[in-house]
Amino acid sequence: METMRTFKPDAVLLDMNFETDINTGNEGLFWLSELKRDFPTVEVVLFTAYADISLAVEGMKRGAFDFVVKPWDNAKLLATLEEACKKHRKSTLPETATVSPAMQWGESEAMTRLRHEVEKVAPTDATVLITGENGTGKDVLANEIHRLSRRAGRPMVSVDTGAITDTLFESEMFGHVKGAFTDAYADHIGKFEQANGTTLFLDEIGNLPLNQQAKLLRVLQNRSITKVGDTKSVPIDIRLICATNRDLKAMVKEGSFREDLYYRINMMPLHLPPLRERPDEIISLAELFVKEFAATYPRKAQSLSDEAKQLLLHCRWSGNIRELRGCIEKAVIYSETEQIRVEDLKLGDSELMDENIASMADYEEKMIREALKKHNGNLTLVSKALKMSRPTLYNRLKKYGI
């Protein structure tokens, strides 16, 4: 049950019998009831070696999605599980809900401090403003805050505020009633109402025009919305998280962002550092992306070579995690072996941090010499610091005459 809470699957393939020589199916029925009690939207497919129709009927009565008998047909089993997953996602994810990858915290001082702040803020309903450069993972952090909140039972609703046109802003955010304007053929539920009872994430809040800022502020103050074409007020209960890559304080001074709105959304400010200040996360993120894209395309790639890791550690990553993700996606597509090699990464010298070094090999030699100096020649510590195996390190020392 703890795995269910942390892993959060769409569907469960549940064996009916766990103990040797026991084939009553009672264990499976017990855990089916437990699962449906605590996780009612998760679909459960029962799995048994005994084609007992009465057992299947009982399982269906208790909420099972379907029943698979051993020996099974692979195609049918996969099709059943796929349909179960689709049903779960359809029942739990509204149109604007977001599914984000897991938060990678790392061990840097900045990220450790941020993690402690998130652990304090997340369980509350306090409004949060996340700042950081493009591609740093502000949406992932917002999802992590939601996951740790008391509203985690429902998906977070995400909105790119800068992408909504001025004419459609009120309709998209607050909804409209049938006949409110031309082409309003039916009632429409806006983003605020969709997020009622859960978290509303307003991304790129700094791109919101002043007139839209005033409308947003009014709703946040009143905690209610009025749909376009309607007169009655609808109360809303949301937890608000905003994000921006812009300096809102400077925008307030220059008059392009409302001061009253700024103070309302900046109750709990959280800053997400750029990837260049979180080097300990680069390899773990890259390995995560390798597995993701190897499964997506699919490709043989499963890991990164030591040389590829060192190259990734010495890149600028001005586009942050988004750029790293795109680099690994491209590398997985180009790769022909189980390991991503330097040549698969397709990185040019302009993307490397030290322009005074002529080649990738020079980068590796410089990095090894720096690590040796830092750790006073202790090869065990150097190997760990460089995330390089001892045999590989010995080969590099010989290669560069160190």
Can you walk me through this structure?
This protein is an alpha/beta fold. 45% of the residues lie in helices and 11% in strands. The protein is built from 18 helices and twelve strands. The chain has a five-stranded parallel sheet. α12 (282-296) crosses α14 (320-334) and α16 crosses α17. The radius of gyration is 26 Å and the shape is flat.
Structural class: alpha/beta
- Runs in which pLDDT lies below 50 for 5 or more consecutive residues are 95-99
Instruction: Give the helix level as a range of percent.
Output: 40-55%
The N- and C-terminal alpha carbons lie at a distance of 54 Å
Spatial arrangement of strands, main beta sheet: 5-6-9-4-10
How many beta strands in the DSSP annotation?
Answer: 12
Number of helices: 18
Summary tags:
single chain; 402 residues; alpha/beta; three-stranded parallel beta sheet; 18 helices; 12 strands; 45% helix; flat
Summarize the structure.
Helix content is 45%, strand content 11%.
Outline the secondary-structure elements:
Layout: H1 2-7, E1 11-15, H2 26-38, E2 43-48, H3 53-61, E3 66-69, H4 74-92, H5 109-121, E4 128-131, H6 138-147, E5 157-160, H7 169-174, H8 191-194, E6 199-203, H9 210-222, E7 224-225, E8 234-235, E9 239-244, H10 248-254, H11 259-265, E10 268-271, H12 282-296, E11 303-304, H13 306-313, H14 320-334, E12 339-340, H15 342-345, H16 360-374, H17 379-386, H18 390-399
Parallel strand pairs: 1-2, 2-3, 4-9, 4-10, 5-6, 6-9, 11-12
Antiparallel strand pairs: 7-8
Helix pairs in contact: 12-14, 16-17
